[in-house]
Amino acid sequence: MLGFLQRIYQSYTASHIPFFAAALAYYALFSLMPLLFLLVGVFGFILRGNAELESAFFSRLVELTVLLFPTQPEIAQTLLSFLTKGAFPITFASLLVLLWASSNFFAALAYALGVIFGQGPPRLQLPFPPDFPAPGLSPLGRGSRRVLAQLGALRGRVAALLAPLLLGLALILLALLGLGLSFLLRYLPAGFDFLRGGLELILPILGGFLLFFFTYALLPVPAPQLSSALLSALLAALAWEGMRLGLPLLLPRTQYEVIYGPIAGFLLALVGFYLTMWILLSGAVVARVLSEEV
Fold first, then answer.
1. Domain count of the fold of the chain
2. Could you tell me how far CA 12 lies from the centroid of its own chain?
3. What pTM did the predictor assign?
4. Residue 2 belongs to a domain
5. Does residue 239 contact residue 279 with C-beta atoms inside 8 Å?
6. Among 10, 18, 117, 268, which is least packed by CB within 10 angstroms?
7. How remote is the C-alpha of 158 from its chain's centroid?
8. Successive 10-residue mean pLDDT values, the chain, 294 residues
C-alpha cells in the first residue's frame, strides 16, 4: 500500500498537476465567455417571436434605464433593437467562437492527460514515410503510394482536430442533461416525493462519474485499463461531490462579496474550476498507476 501511494505521489509531481490544473481552470473560465453572448442571441430570438414578452421586457427596460441613466432614456430602445435585429449574427458568431474555444480547451486537456499517461507514438505516424523506397514499383506506383500516405495523414489530422471537439460537446451535453434532470426533480408529482431525496444525492454523483469516466477512457493516449478508469472515475466523482458540498461552507458567497466586491463571483468560479481540474487530473494519475499495477 505504501509503495502504491509513493508511485501515485511520484506520478503526481512528475506530471505537474497543479500547473496544468491552474492553466485549464483559466482556459475553461474564459472559454465560457462566448456562452454569455450565445444566451443573449437566443434571448433576442425569443423576443422576436413573442410580441407580449417583447413589450413587457421593453417596459421594464425603460424603468431600469430611467433609474440608471435619467438623461438618456433612448438607451432602452437602442438595446432592444440590438437584441432583436442582431439576434442571428450574435448567435451564429458566438456559437462559432464557443465551438472553437471548447475544441481548444479539450485539446489542451487531452495534452495534459497525455503528459500524465506518457504520450505514446503519435496517432498520425505513418506506417512508412512518404519517400520510402518501394522496390519493384514504377515511378507512377511510388507516386500514388506517396499520395495515399499523405491523404491518410491528412485524414488523421482532421480526426485529431475533431475528436476533442466532439468529445467536448458530448461531455457538455451530458452535464446539461444532469442539470436538466436536477431541475425536473423539483416538479415531481406528489406521490413521488420520496424519490426526490435519493435522486438529488445520486444524480450529481452519477453525472460526475460518467463525465470523469468518459474523459479517462477516451481522451488519454495511451488509454488506461477500463477497470482502472472506472475506479478512478468513482473516486474523482466522490471527491468532486465533496468539493461541491463543502466549498460553499468554507467560502460563503455573502461574506466573500463583502470582502472582494463585484469580482467575488469570478474568484469563486475560478476556485471551483481549479479544484475541478485538480480532481480530474489527480484521478488520471490514479488511473495511470492502477493500469501499471494490472
1. 1
2. 22
3. 0.69
4. no
5. yes
6. 10
7. 21
8. 80 86 84 80 83 84 82 81 84 84 78 79 43 52 57 50 57 64 66 65 79 83 84 91 82 72 75 88 90 78
